[in-house]
């Protein structure tokens, strides 16, 4: 798909998944007559315009393109999408400290669950398509890092110790007669492999 900063509607329909897959280009020219007559490729007319379906496994790709153009990476796509002149700071992998870890995957799954549930509730109130598209893996990782940094600030050793130790004023658990009898009986049982 050819991307331009001028065509905002096309630019706003993009997402990071397709950009990472290399599906957005700049200055790509297609041979439409060849695609129309080809049995491997298709031109489909839609209300938004022409949709081009190209079989990437076909051996005639050199005839499909007049010019392949340049693939637009996700960071450049994000840079095109913003309306202001402030550049989005992007760090290269080499610029991060070696001991920097990604957030726990379980934390990201929990965040994804609650955010998707919240977005699901909001669908009846308005168009949330853009919000759903923006909740990709990059946003989840950023949110996970933010929550982990909050946890590091808020949970000190003292607060963690509060949840890990028992206090004298904690209520004791009372077992019923059946539970206490089975507990005593289980303690008396010796297993064959024990000596």
Automatic annotation (TrEMBL):
<protein>
    <recommendedName>
        <fullName>RNA polymerase I-specific transcription initiation factor RRN10</fullName>
    </recommendedName>
</protein>
<feature type="compositionally biased region" description="Basic and acidic residues">
    <location>
        <begin position="181"/>
        <end position="195"/>
    </location>
</feature>
<dbReference type="Pfam" id="PF05234">
    <property type="entry name" value="UAF_Rrn10"/>
</dbReference>
<dbReference type="InterPro" id="IPR022793">
    <property type="entry name" value="Rrn10"/>
</dbReference>
<dbReference type="GO" id="GO:0000500">
    <property type="term" value="C:RNA polymerase I upstream activating factor complex"/>
</dbReference>
<dbReference type="InterPro" id="IPR007898">
    <property type="entry name" value="Rrn10_Saccharomycetes"/>
</dbReference>
<dbReference type="GO" id="GO:0001165">
    <property type="term" value="F:RNA polymerase I cis-regulatory region sequence-specific DNA binding"/>
</dbReference>
<dbReference type="GO" id="GO:0042790">
    <property type="term" value="P:nucleolar large rRNA transcription by RNA polymerase I"/>
</dbReference>
<feature type="region of interest" description="Disordered">
    <location>
        <begin position="174"/>
        <end position="195"/>
    </location>
</feature>
């Amino acid at each position: 798909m050819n991307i331009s900063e001028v065509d905002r509607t096309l630019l706003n329909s993009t997402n990071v998944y397709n950009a990472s897959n290399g599906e957005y280009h700049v200055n790509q020219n297609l041979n439409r007559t060849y695609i129309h007559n080809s049995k491997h490729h298709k031109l489909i007319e839609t209300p938004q315009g022409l949709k081009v379906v190209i079989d990437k496994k076909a051996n005639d790709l050199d005839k499909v393109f007049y010019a392949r153009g340049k693939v637009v990476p996700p960071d450049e796509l994000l840079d095109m999408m913003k309306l202001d002149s402030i550049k989005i700071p992007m760090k290269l992998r080499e610029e991060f400290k070696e001991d920097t870890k990604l957030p726990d995957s379980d934390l990201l799954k929990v965040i994804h669950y609650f955010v998707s549930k919240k977005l699901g509730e909001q669908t009846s109130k308005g168009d949330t398509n853009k919000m759903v598209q923006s909740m990709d893996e990059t946003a989840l990782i950023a949110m996970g890092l933010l929550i982990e940094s909050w946890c590091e600030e808020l949970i000190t050793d003292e607060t963690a110790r509060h949840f890990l130790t028992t206090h004298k004023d904690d209520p004791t658990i009372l077992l019923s007669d059946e539970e206490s009898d089975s507990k005593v009986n289980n303690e008396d049982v010796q297993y064959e492999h024990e000596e």
